[in-house]
Amino acid sequence: MKVIVVGPRGKMGKLITQIASERDDMELVAGVAPAGRDYIGQDLGQAAMVGRMLGVSVVDDLESVIDDCDVIIDFSTKEMGMKVLELAVAHEKALVCGTTGFSAEEMQRFKDAAQKIPMLYAANTSKLVNVMNRLLEMVASTLKDEIDIEILEMHDQWKKDAPSGTSKEMGEIMAHAMGKELSEVAVYGREGVSPREPGTIGYHSLRAGNIPSSHTVFFGGMGERLEITHHSYNWECFARGACDCAVYLADQEPGFYTIQDVLHLE
């Protein structure tokens, strides 16, 4: 399976490049970087700091190499992500996107693209996070309005969007399990006189240092509390999951897929 990695110098792009280069079922055919980057034209292995040459180049024009691939993996920026999506549809190439921060209208474009290409969007490609999501769904559907739900998420100082895409997905899963929409029940932070409203889901975002990713969901009852937490020590778990998603997607018909499909969690 032939793969293009978008954003090979990013924290996820570097790891995806390294892991893909080590897999027998994946062949890297190019890296794609934003125009003006000083590593354009370099060998992909050099640009992604893999430690060895990979024999393919980093380019700034996806369209010039897109026909050489089966699947595109994109963990770049929301601005670049929309351009990648447009080209993937035009050239009918499968796309795995893990970039976060898209608006509802932009997310609809990904869903619309699934009519023409195999499209997999995942805010979080960690296997354990997605197992955690199933646990959250079970607790929320069982207890519903008997408990208070609060989400605490932590990331590095460079993360642009808040709350994280992963925590939004967690909130949506729990809200739907209770027969609600997240947009109707989410509360983002508190200040001053701000008593908790029953049935809401509270969000709290921390950004500090190089914390890779941490999500804790608190279920507060009277006289007891349940916490479900996922900590990543680095981004390797997400990169491995992204590669698994690409391999899965290569054999699929056009449609909108999730990592739950990859892990057979449905």
Task: Count structural domains.
Answer: 2
Structural class: alpha/beta
Number of strands: 12
Percentage of helical residues?
A: 25-40%
* CATH superfamily annotation of the largest domain: NAD(P)-binding Rossmann-like Domain
Major sheet description: 7 strands, parallel
Global shape = elongated
Give the low-pLDDT segments.
none
Distance between the termini: 26 Å
The neighbouring-strand order within the major sheet is 3-2-1-4-5-6-12
- In the CATH scheme, the class of the largest domain would be Alpha Beta
CATH architecture of the largest domain: 3-Layer(aba) Sandwich
pLDDT average, as an integer?
95
Compute the gyration radius: what is it? 19 Å
Number of helices: 9
| Order of H and E elements | EHEHEEHEHEHEHHEEEEHEH
